[in-house]
Amino acid sequence: MITGLRTFLLLLFIAFTWQTAHADSPLVQYPGNGHYYQRFDTFKYWTDARDYCQSVNGHLATITSRSEDDFVNQNLVQNLAQPGAPVLLGGTDRISEGTWQWITGEAWSYADWAPGQPDNNNEQDYLAYWNNPTYPGQWDDSYGGVLLPFICEWNWLTDVWPTDLTDIWWNPNEAGWGMNLVQTGSFVYVTIYVYGADGKPTWFGGGLDKTGAGTLTGKLYAATGPYFGGPFDPNAWVVREVGTMTFVATTGDTGQFTYSVDGVPVNKAVQRQPLTLDNYNGTYESIEILHVTDCSNPAANGDDTNQHTVLITQNGSAMAVTFGTLGLPGGSCTATGTYSQLGRMGQFVGPYACPWGETGVYALSQMNHDYRQFSARISKNSANTGCKAVGQTTGLIEY
Ligand SMILES: [Ca+2]
Ligand SMILES: [Ca+2]
Ligand SMILES: [Ca+2]
Questions:
Q1: pLDDT tens, per residue, the chain with 399 residues
Q2: DSSP states along 314-364
Q3: Is 235 in the same domain as 114?
Q4: How many Å lie between the centroid of ligand 2 and the Cα of residue 94?
Q5: Domain termination residue (choose one: 231, 249, 272)
Q6: Which residues crowd ion ligand 1, with CB under 5 Å?
Q7: What is the distance in A from the centroid of ligand 2 to the CA of 162?
Q8: Distance in Å, CA 124 to ligand 1 centroid
Q9: Ligand 3 center–CA 61 separation, angstroms
Q10: Which CATH number do you get for residue 74?
Q11: Residues 118 and 263 in one domain
Q12: Can you tell me the distance from the alpha carbon of 301 to that of 387, in angstroms, rounded to the nearest whole number?
């Protein structure tokens, strides 16, 4: 009995902390610079938070003025963030102790340290809103090895989670129903095909608008109309609002879809439905835009644009990607690994090696192929230089 109660309380506690841990803030825009900000309450280490913001095409927030500071603090931190949990920002002094830098390269011209901070207590190198009621809105140097909430910043709304959700989505354990998403810009049209209480085919539709990074919301509609076997009488078409829907993209390939029809709530985990494997075999003229961090030689950090010839050989899920680096001796590097695909989007990951001895891990995600070109997000981690490159690439097939 005691054990049962304890288990119940433990489960209750887990459920409670899980829920609060995912109460991400809404997306807010600061009129002063037009930028967008969102607080994420899935706790991460600073480097993982930095990588996450990059993966959704933003950056850990940089606070470069009193007014930006006040806006972000008042809308995302004070009385809003989880009590006692510092909120990570995109500043660090890990390269040179005491020399604080923004990860974007913006000038360090403004700071709002709490009294006594930064104190580098036991090697603190990462900037955070302290979220301490004694020092409301002020900053602390915090730890890289503690899981904390964080704030991403985007310069443009079109940058906020720029995944193209267009695909057929389903739950692989529930074959027989599904939904189509068709995205243009930050708008997504949804068609859900399910079954009514009578077991007959039923579909709902409506539009979703982006309301946060990876979050879209909208109204859901049902329609009745003339029998398909007869003449189409437009006056017989009747549309009725039945509820609301929310799609939360948990990754580029998975999401949580919540909707209601006349008060009946539905909550489903969905993912892109596997259709076929695209054929990437070919030689491409490719451009990649990379953001490079963590190099043991700090001078190698920064933004990088490269033009490559990329050779892709593919046999089913076995894939090799050879990428040349213009201006470097020794020719090209080759990554050998596995390709997989859900719906329209593929991914590849494998170790790479170069003739000059460099090795590392090369990954492409959100790969999209449309006959003569491909696009993908790219990440490349060098075992030799420590450099981590994250960015985007596109390639046009060569004749
Ligand atoms: Ca900023
Ligand atoms: Ca420090
Ligand atoms: Ca400190």
A1: 334 444 444 333 333 333 344 578 888 999 999 899 999 998 999 999 998 898 888 999 999 999 999 999 999 998 888 888 999 999 999 999 999 999 988 999 999 999 999 999 999 999 999 999 899 899 999 999 999 999 999 988 777 777 889 999 999 999 999 999 999 988 999 999 999 999 999 999 999 998 877 889 999 999 999 999 999 999 999 999 999 999 988 888 999 999 999 999 999 999 999 999 999 999 999 999 888 888 999 888 888 888 888 999 999 999 999 987 644 555 789 999 999 999 999 999 999 999 889 999 999 999 999 888 999 999 999 999 999 888 889 999 987
A2: EETTEEEEEEE-TT-TT-EEEEEEEEEEETTEEEEEEEEE-TTS-EEEEEE
A3: no
A4: 6
A5: 272
A6: 62
A7: 34
A8: 22
A9: 19
A10: 3.10.100.10
A11: no
A12: 8
Tokens matching residue 47: 């480097």
277 within a domain of the structure (yes/no) = no
> Across-strand partners of 257?
247, 268
Residues 12 and 106 in one domain: yes
> Does 213 lie in the same domain as 289?
no
Residue type, 119: D
